[in-house]
Amino acid sequence: MSTIDVKAHAGSVPTPDLTAQRSAWRLPVSTVAVVLLCLPALVPLAAIVVAALSPETEIWQHLANYILPEVIRNTLLLTFGVALLAGSIGTALAWLTAMCEFPGRRFFEWALLLPLAIPAYVLAFVAVGFLDFSGPLQTWIRAATGSSSWFPAIRTGGGAIFVLSLATYPYVYLLARSAFLTQGRRALEAAQSLGLGRAAATWRVALPMARPWIAAGVALICMETLADFGAVSVFNYNTFTTAIYRAWAGMFSVNAALELAGVLMVFVLVVLAVERKSRAVARFSSSRDTSRDAPRLALQGAARALAFAGCAIVFLLAFALPFTQLLLWMLKHMGRDLDARYFGFAARSLLLAAAAAVVIVAASVLLAYVLRRKETRFTRWVIRTATMGYAIPGTVLAIGIVVPVISLNNLLQGWLRDWFGNGAPTLMLHGTLVTVLAAYLARFLAAGFNPIESGLQRITHNIDEAAIGLGVVGRQLVRRVHLPLLKTSLTTAATLVFVDVMKEMPITLITRPVGWETLATRVFEMTSEGDWERAALPAVVIVLAGLIPVALLTRQSSNLGGSNVA
Amino acid sequence: MWLELQNVSRYFGTSKAVDGLSLSLERGSIGCLLGPSGCGKTTALRCIAGFEPVTAGSIRAHGRVLAAPEFSTPPESRRIGMVFQDYALFPHLTAADNIAFGLHRLPAGHRTRRVTEMLEAVGLADYRSHYPHQLSGGQQQRIALARALAPEPELILLDEPFSSLDVELRERLSVEVRGILKGLNATALLVTHDQHEAFAMADVIGVMKQGRLEQWDTPYELYHRPGTRFVADFVGQGVFLSGQIIEHGSVQTEVGVMRIDAPIDSKGAWQAGDRVELLLRPDDVIHDDASTLRAEVCQRTFRGAEFLYTLRMPGGAQLLSLVPSHHNHQIGESIGIRIEPDHVVAFAAPG
């Protein structure tokens, strides 16, 4: 209730601007900083708009004739397929574990979140490596029966849809589950008292009530799918992200890459609009009924077995089997591959992840405090701009940042040459860690900002005023009150960013300094050569890191479900 | 005077949250601002605490100016303690550390002693290492009070201090808190919308309406000699009985002729023939079987020790009467009553 009180309070009594009176110089400095923080997200969009306004007809013709038709068809097919399949899996599993009782329910509740730790590109190469013509399964089938020609082809759109669905269903699972758990059982009971059977009540009451959350989850899945680069590369399935990468790395055509990025952004904006809308609905229809102790539907007979089997199959396919296969491959090649170079990959991944965590947490703290001090339309708008990068696919962001940086570099280089002649030093602004970090900042600022902002919001203005009234102000207030209360939020934010960066592939690939190999780029290198087994070692490290935020998440969601156990 | 407000106003744009508020509070006394929600009482409190600047007027404590237009002593230097509606205890600190929070200028030994003193003063000596979430609502409230009192502020402000507690606890605690404040000879000002809280706690009460102070008086005077119709309505129960002035100080009503007290209403003296309304409290109407004045019972509320009867006079006027509960009368019964007001307050009839 305290947050609600604060809002009401802040609404009726505008916060006085005492701080601004005392230190008028602070405002412009923080405003400048905040506006600067918007640049990493705005520059790529600007680059796309500039490219779109000055199209080179030849390139555009080539794209329109040879590339766009396939890419658009594939991207749409993939996005709709994954949305449908992952949405159904996620909703069904959420309903089973939130509303029903069957053997293994407690285990599956959290175990079904584990696939979040496996990036889609890792699941993709394990699936392809295991199921492809030369993989262990088909080899074994041929050895046993003589032929495996009946086995369906794996590196197809269908295969990509299947793998991406297994990798992304947890988003819907998580949101739908918390919707089912928090919507309370009163509405269901009311439906039953009006003569509906349990199944009909679920269909006509529980599902419609959870619909905004499911829609938000599906929108997230669509964004992940549109942004996916690693998994579709493994499947050799051409979508926008791979086309952009190829235009950039293969054809060296900056404009083609930017124009493709522009078309992809149109798709992203549509999904984003759907997401915003469903989130708004979710906020208004959230129920205040907290009766979660109503009994679960105890499944009987065949339903019981089916529920167990459904959860078990998803868990096995999305986590247990691929992880086991990864470990086996890793053990097989570890003796030869685990050398000093590998520690270099790992060290570079850690360095990037740690640096990004520090930068992004610092930026998030700054934004959150600016918002707390002065919540105006301007600050809200600035923050929305700075954090919108989560919706921009990594490939688009990376190209959109690198291209302007290269232009800037060439401009400065030209000046240097004018001044110093041939002895001018060579500039390499684009291949520096600053560019990498700027792109990460754009992509992952939302991941860091959201926990910190909500943590800061939980510290009510009354708490601040209580401290001020007791003579504790300024830095002392931050040190003695805010910091201890924000510790968990800061750790969460840093962890989320750290792991996201560890897993990140396209941005690192495009913006990294020349020759800078990290774990994720190593996976890309190995898989693009079809050397699935040797991609396992770096992938295992990434998956292990990915387990940390999943552990945080399961603790949260078991707190959520906790009251129906007690 | 310990605390003095002169014509304090606080405007938000064109809306006048506080409008020309003047009051003064003596050392060691407990004042209260009472009024419906949105009447500006909390804004007034925040102006005194220093969390809101004043648009006009001045606030002085102990003779020194705390706030005036364009001038504001920062809240941390006002030596004013505040107890918040939601207590705003620091959730990461124990009860003892919460109380010690404002004592950072004291040497460690003094600090511990002071914390122990305060814990004892609020009767929670055994809870020093409990965290806020381990304390009940009433205990949190007393820790918040101890925290505010620990640095020995010159004034303590309480914002709806009991509103988040349940009714029984509220009554008990308001008496307890008054005891604690009086025991420490603290000067306090609270705001509330609950008159029972105000009566239980305060020596002086100000009733506020739309940013303006209607009356600043003792609880007894507020109840028996309300200065305005709004105060009469807001404080206590009662009915307004129509009547007409027949000569200076006398009013003809359906229940007989009554003498009005010295007029408090700003209109001054009444003229013969003026239509007025008299305030009659339930305890002014006494049940008396022997009386010839009869009234019909049209509603009754059982309150344990007494009944509150709503009565109708033959002429249609309604009265409230508080009657010991062994006088059990049914609806529709006619009973004898006697009007025995200590004070008769008249207001101009509306319209």
What is the CA-based Rg of chain B, rounded? 24 Å
Report the oligomer.
Answer: heterodimer
Q: How many β strands of chain A by DSSP? A: 2
| Radius of gyration of chain A over all CA atoms, rounded | 26 Å
Structural class determined from secondary elements of chain A: mainly alpha
Which runs of chain B of at least 5 residues are low in confidence (pLDDT < 50)?
A: none
Quickly list its features.
heterodimer; A: 566 residues; mainly alpha; MetI-like fold; 2 domains; two-stranded parallel sheet; 23 helices; globular; B: 351 residues; Rossmann fold; OB fold (Dihydrolipoamide Acetyltransferase, E2P); 22% helix
Could you explain how this protein is built, in words?
The complex is a heterodimer of chains A (566) and B (351). With 566 residues, chain A is an all-alpha fold. Chain A folds into two domains: 26-54 and 355-513, MetI-like (MetI-like fold), CATH 1.10.3720; 56-300, MetI-like (MetI-like fold), CATH 1.10.3720. In chain A, helix 8 (157-182) packs across helix 10 and helix 12 runs antiparallel to helix 13 (254-284). Chain A is globular. The longest helix of chain A is centred in the first third of the chain and has 43 residues, at 57-99. Chain A has helices at residues 2-12, 18-22, 26-53, 57-99, 105-111, 120-131, 136-145, 157-182, 186-193, 198-227, 230-235, 240-249, 254-284, 301-337, 340-373, 377-386, 394-420, 433-458, 461-469, 474-503, 506-511, 519-528, 536-565, and strands spanning 100-101, 297-298. Chain A is built from 23 helices and two strands. A two-stranded parallel ribbon of chain A has the order 1-2. Chain B is of the alpha+beta class and 351 residues long. Chain B has two domains: 3-230, P-loop containing nucleotide triphosphate hydrolases (Rossmann fold, 3-Layer(aba) Sandwich); 237-348, OB fold (Dihydrolipoamide Acetyltransferase, E2P). Chain B has helices at 41-49, 95-100, 108-121, 137-149, 167-183, 195-201, 219-224, 229-234, and strands at residues 3-12, 15-25, 30-34, 56-61, 64-68, 71-72, 80-83, 155-159, 188-192, 204-209, 212-217, 239-247, 250-253, 256-259, 275-280, 285-287, 294-302, 306-312, 318-324, 334-339, 345-348. In chain B, the strands form four sheets. In chain B, strands 7-8-9-3-10-11 form a six-stranded mixed β-sheet, sandwiched between helices. In chain B, strands 2-1-4-5-6 form a five-stranded antiparallel β-sheet, with helices on one face. A five-stranded antiparallel β-sheet of chain B has the order 14-13-12-15-21. In chain B, a hairpin with a 2-residue loop joins strand 4 and strand 5. The chains are: A mainly alpha (566), B alpha+beta (351).
